[in-house]
Automatic annotation (TrEMBL):
Cofactor: Mg(2+)
Cited CDD domains: EAL, GGDEF, PAS
Domain EAL: start-end pairs: 559-813
GO molecular function, one term: cyclic-guanylate-specific phosphodiesterase activity
UniProt catalytic activity: 3',3'-c-di-GMP + H2O = 5'-phosphoguanylyl(3'->5')guanosine + H(+)
Domain of life assignment: Bacteria
Gene3D superfamilies: 3.30.70.270, EAL domain, PAS domain
GO biological process terms held by the UniProt record: cellular response to nitric oxide
Protein's recorded name: cyclic-guanylate-specific phosphodiesterase
Domain GGDEF residues, every copy: 417-550
Amino acid sequence: MDIIESLPGIFYVLDPDGRFLLWNSRFLQVSGYGAAEVERLHALDLFRGADRDRVARRIRDTFETGTGDVEAELVGKSGKPTPFHFTGQLVDFSGEQCLVGLGVDVSDRKRAEDFLRESEARYRSFIENTTEGVYSFELEGPVPIELPVDEQVRRIYRSRIVACNDALAQMCGYEEAGDLVGVTMQELHGGSDIPENLALLEEWVARGYHVAGAESLEIDRDGNARWFANNCLGMVEDGCLVRGWGARVDITHRKVTEQRLRLSASVFENIADGIFITDADSSIVDVNQAFVEITGFAREDVIGRDPRMLQAGRHDDSFFRELQRTLGVKGQWRGEIWYRRKDGEVFPVLLTINRVLGDDGGTTHYVFAATDISQIKQSEERLDFLAHHDPLTGLPNRALLNERLEWAMQHVRRQSRSFAVVFIDLDHFKHVNDSLGHPAGDRVLQDVGQRLVGVLRQDDTVARLGGDEFVLLLEDIAHPDKAAKVAAKVMRALAEPFEVEGRDIRVQASMGICMYPGDGDDAATLLRNADAAMFRAKDRGRNTYEFYTEELTRKAFERVLLESNLRLAVEREELFLNYQPQIELATGRVVGMEALIRWNHPELGLLSPTRFIPLAEDSGLIHAIGEWVLREACRQARAWCEAGLEFGRLGVNVSRAQLQRGRLFEDIQSALAASGLPPERLELEVTESFIMEQDTLAVEQLDRLRDCGVSIAIDDFGTGYSSLSYLKRLPVHKLKIDKSFVLDIADDDNDMAIVAAVISMGRKLGLTVLAEGVESARQADFLLENGCHEAQGFLYARPMPHEAVTAFLREQAPKGDSDSDQ
Ligand SMILES: Nc1nc2c(ncn2[C@@H]2O[C@H](COP(=O)(O)O[C@H]3[C@@H](O)[C@H](n4cnc5c(=O)[nH]c(N)nc54)O[C@@H]3COP(=O)(O)O)[C@@H](O)[C@H]2O)c(=O)[nH]1
C-alpha cells in the first residue's frame, strides 16, 4: 500500500467491466469522490465527450493487448477537468485479468504545450504575414569556423533553405515558400559572382555569422537585379557553423529612388543651366550653383524672393499673361526671356518652367531651368552680321541690300513715295591696287565706304557689292533731282584725297541712278538698271553720274546747273519782273497788277518761274529772291503811283517757304517803308494748298499783314481742298480761280459748274473773285454772267515788262492822268 500511495499520480485498478477495484488517496483527492462513491463509479464516468470515447477504446485495447496509454481530461465530482496521461497494464488480480493504471497530471506540460502551440501559431502567423522574407538554412555538413573565409563562403553557398515564408519566395522570384525549400544559398543569391553579394557573405563570416541591415545585390530568376537589406544569424555548434536564420527586405525601389535622387542632386548641382525652384506661392526655395554663377546672386539673396526679381522689364503684361496661361494649361512653359544679373546687366535666357504636382494633384512647386543664351545670341548676331555685311568695310552686302530694297519697295508702295538706287563704281581703281598693292587698296575701299556713309542720311543705305562697287539706297527721295544732288555730294566727298601709307590717293567714281517706282519693279531690275546707267556714266568720260533714263539725266544736270547759276542771278541782275493787269469785268477797268518773276539766263535765255522757283525753294534761295521781288515790285508800284498811273493793287506771289520762315511781315514792312508804297496797294498771293495746311505761324503773319492794310488773295483756288468754315476765318480778301478751270468753261460742263459754284461761294463769303487765264471773250462773258468780279489773262494783256505796263496803264488812263514813266 505504501508504494501505491507514494506513486506520483493517481493509481487505480479496473475490473474487465471498468469498475474500480482499488485506488490510492490521490485518486480520491483528484476525483473529489469518496471511497463509497468510487466503488459505484464506472471508469468512463470520469470522462466527457470525445475523451470518453477514446478512453473507452483504449481500455478495450488494453484488455486485449495487455498495455495501453491515453491522454484525456479527468472530470472530477466538482466538474473541473484535469489533463492526465494514463498508462495501463493487465495484471492478474485474484485470478482475474484486471487493468492496473497510473494517471499523471499533465496540466503543467499541457499548459506549456498550449503556450508553445499558441506561441508558434503567433510566430507562424507573424512569419507568414510579414512582408519581410524570412528563412532558415542548413549547411550540408558542419563547417569548422577556423576554415579560411573563402572556403567557408564556398560551403555556405551550398547550404540549403529548409524553411521560409511566401514573402521570401516571392521576393526571390518564386511563387510560394515550398518552391524555395531545398534551394541552395548560391541559387538564392542568383550566383556567386556578384561582388556586393560575395562581400556581404565574407563580412557575415568575419563578423561571427551575424549582420544586421547589410545590403546585398542579387539577380532574381527573371534576371532582374534586386537589392535587399539583410539580417542573418548563424548557429555555431561545437566550433562549426551548422545552420542559420535570416530575414530580408526588398529595398530595390528605395535603392532605385535613392540612385535617382543622387543622380538628380548631382545633375542639379552640376548642370550648366541655372535652376531655381519655387513653391506654389512663387517663393524661391532652392537654387543651384549654376544659377549663382549665371545671375551673380548668392543663394541667400534669392531664397524666399519672387522670381520676378530677375525680370529685366523688357516684356509687357501680355507676355506674362500668356506665360501663366500656358503654364496653367500645359504645366510647362518654354521660351526666351530677358533677365537682369545682380550687377544690372540684362541678358537673354532660354527658360523652361515645369509645374510639379503633389499626390493630391495640387501644385507644390515650379522648377525653372534657365540657360544663359547671351553667347548664342551674340554668335547668332555675329553670324547674321557676317551673312549680311561685307567683311572688308562692314557695310551691308548684296543680301542685306536686297532685303532693304524689298522693304523700301513695300514701304513706298503703301505711302506712294519714291526712292533712288545709286550704283557706284570707282574709276580706274585697278591702278590703285596695281601700284600700291591690295592692302592699300583695301584701306582706300574702307575709307571710301566711310565717306559714303558720312554723305548720307541715317535712313539711307551704303552697301558694298564687292570689288570697287558700292550701291546707295536713298530712301524717300521725292524727286530725281534730290538723287542727283546726293550723287554730286558723293563726287565732292570722293574728290578729297585719301591718305594711305603717307600718300595722297585720288579716287573718282562713275554713278548710275535709277528711281523706284518707274525704273524697275524688283530689286534685281533696279540694280541692273542702275548698273547700266553707271556704264553710261563711264562712257561719258567717268567721274559723273547718269540716270537710267536720258530725260532724267538731262533734267538733273540742268537743275544742278540752274541752281548754281541762280545763286549769282540776283547779283548779276538777271532777274526781273513782268506785270500782268487784272481787269474789273463789269467796267473793263484795271484794278490790279500781278508781279511775275522772270530770269534772263545768259545761256538758256528767258526762263519761266516754273523752272527756277522750285529750285529756289529747295535750295533756300527763295528768301533772297522773294525779298528782292517784294522790294522791286513795291518800288515799281510806288513809281506808278507817283506817275499818277492807276493800277489798283499790286499782287506779289509769296511761296510757302517765305511764310514758314516767319519773317515775311518784317520783310514786307521793310519793302513798303523803303518804297513808300501804302500797304493798301499791296496784295499777297498765297496758294490754296498752303493756306489749307493751317500753318499757325503763317496765318499769324497774314493776320498781322491784313491788320496793317495789306490784302491777301488765295491763288490757284480750286486745286486744293478748301474747307469753307476754315476759309471764313482767314484774313483773305480775294479768291483767284485757277486757270485750269477757266480754260475749258466754254466747252466743259463740269468746269462751268465748278467756276459758277466758286464764284457764288466767294461772293457769299464777301470775297472778291478773280478768274485767271481768261483768253477768250466767251470765257469773259460766262464769268461776267455768273457774277465774277475780276479777270486776268491773255485776253486783256500778257505779263509785260514794266515799260510796257506803264504804256498800257497810260493808254488805259483817262487822258491827262499820268505824267511820267519808270
Ligand atoms: N513765289 C513766286 N512765284 C512766282 C513769282 N512769279 C511767278 N510765280 C509763280 O510762277 C508760276 C508761273 O508763273 P508764270 O509763268 O509767270 O505764269 C503766270 C502767267 O504768265 C500765266 N498766265 C496769265 N494769263 C494767262 C492766260 O490767259 N493763259 C495762260 N495759259 N497763262 C496765263 O499764269 C501765271 C500766273 O499765275 P498765278 O500766279 O497763279 O496768278 C505761277 O504759279 C506764279 O504764281 C514770284 O515772284 N514768286
